[in-house]
Amino acid sequence: MSSTRGIKQRIDNVRSVEQIIRAMDMVASTKLVRSRAQLEGVRPIYTELKRISEEVGTLEEAKSNAFYKTREVKNTLYIVISGNRGLAGAYNANVCRKALEHMDGTKNERLVIIGSKGYEYFNRNKKNIVHSIVDISDDQVYYASEDISKKAMELYLAREVEEVYIVYTQFVNVLTNEPVVEKFLPIESSLAPSDVLEKRYEPDLESFIDNLIPLYLHMYLFRAFSESHTSEHAARMVNMDAAGKNASEILEDLNRQYNRKRQASITQELTEIVGSVSVLNKGGADERK
Amino acid sequence: MSEEKRRQTKKLELKITTPRGEKFIEDADMVIMRCIDGNLGVLPGHEPIVAALGDGTLRIINGDAEEKLALFGGVVEVKDDTVRIYSTIAQRLEEIDLERAKADLEAARAAIQEIKDEMQFQNIRALMYRSIVRLEVGLHMEDTSYFDDDSNDEANDS
């Protein structure tokens, strides 16, 4: 195959790539711990607010409220949460494909894209991107999600869009995550009116809804962000782990090749020495004559 | 009479959930919180109610002890002697940065003089109000003139 020097060079290359992989693996696993804690924190408040919002949705009086009322759909807004960086396996591709599958082209689609990978993807697919956000640092997520939910709410209340979908990656466990499309607005209630305990709403239902929904949507988006981030770090960690293993395998292989080459050249040198010695010995025998 | 007895023996369970998780779970005799249209006091046996919260102090009264928390916005749900509060910010006394609250208040007071835009006015007022709440909780101040505090009016109709 190649010379010993060539193999040596490849070993060095693989070794330095492996170091990068290991470093990324470590970074991803620390980030995973942090974003997982954030996710665990936001999940309870989200589920409870979701429950309260859905309970409100079962009430007759709420059905005419703008947040609950379904209108004929002409314009749809999609909020797609993707990552800014690659090297996370199929993470970005999965969530983008899921979103694209959901857009059937019958409606006027508008997209709000979070993450540069998603932006590139939908730009290639010639979709109408109204807004893109690619520079949110991890600790700004909370405020960013507030801004985005407000923006979506404004568009919705100004009747520029009739429904809002959100596409993100649901974190199940470190090895499994699942891209999902969910309806963000109008709020749909999966509860039956009979399941809901009657209670009083203070100060009155309208103002309660006006206070509840912004908070709920903010928490919804913040949770979706956290789910996506956690999935991304988990996917990256798993992929980097696999890549690290592959790198060590290649290294092992290359080392073996290198050693074999080295041994072969030593053997050859020895044979040459023995050969020349025997030639010299022959000459010696001639001298003895 | 039986109602009275129940009140004496029973306690409220208070749960506060923030985006950082369940912040704390505690028993209390009475909880007084600030809603958007006034104070709401809850005693054991209160009817089921859900209310929108405003910025203000949450008072937790337990026996003779009273604890105060700064609470900004959110929703409260009262059911079966459990008070569940869902809010973005709930701060205990020791979590409040007094210096910052003071600075915020000063800044807001200075800024409010030269504002014409309604939106901006709202923001500044919210900031001002929040810093006042933080100061109140942080300094253990008794209810100041900023609060027209007549806290027991809602508590009695439970």
Produce the secondary structure layout.
The complex is a heterodimer of chains A (289) and B (158).
Chain A lengths: L3 H54 L17 E7 L9 H12 L5 E7 L1 H9 L4 E5 L7 H17 L5 E9 L5 E9 L14 E3 L2 H84 L1
Parallel strand pairs in A: 1-2, 1-4, 2-3
Antiparallel strand pairs in A: 4-5
Helix pairs in contact in A: 1-5, 2-3, 4-5
Chain B lengths: L1 H8 L2 E7 L2 E8 L1 E6 L2 E5 L6 E4 L2 E8 L2 E8 L2 E5 L2 E5 L2 E3 L6 H15 L5 H21 L20
Parallel strand pairs in B: 1-9
Antiparallel strand pairs in B: 1-2, 3-4, 3-6, 5-8, 6-7, 7-10, 8-9
Care to describe what's here?
The complex is a heterodimer of chains A (289) and B (158). With 289 residues, chain A is of the alpha/beta class. Chain A has a domain at 43-237: 3-Layer(aba) Sandwich (Pyruvate Kinase, Chain: A, domain 1), CATH 3.40.1380. In chain A, 61% of the residues lie in helices and 14% in strands. Chain A has a 5-stranded mixed beta sheet with strand order 3-2-1-4-5, sandwiched between helices. In chain A, helix 2 links the parallel strand 1 (75-81) and strand 2 (108-114). Chain A starts with a helix and ends with a helix. Residues 143-158 of chain B have low confidence and may be disordered. With 158 residues, chain B is of the alpha+beta class. In chain B, the strands form 2 sheets. Chain B has a 5-stranded mixed beta sheet with strand order 2-1-9-8-5, with no helix packed on it. A 5-stranded antiparallel beta sheet of chain B has the order 4-3-6-7-10. Chain B has helices spanning 2-9, 98-112, 118-138; strands spanning 12-18, 21-28, 30-35, 38-42, 49-52, 55-62, 65-72, 75-79, 82-86, 89-91. Chain B has one domain (2-94, 139-157): F0F1 ATP synthase delta/epsilon subunit, N-terminal (ATP Synthase, domain 1). The two termini of chain B are 14 Å apart. In chain B, a hairpin with a 2-residue loop joins strand 8 (75-79) and strand 9. Chain B is built from 3 helices and 10 strands, in the order H-E-E-E-E-E-E-E-E-E-E-H-H. Chain B is elongated and about 55 Å long. Strand 6 of chain A pairs parallel with strand 5 of chain B, so a sheet runs across the interface.
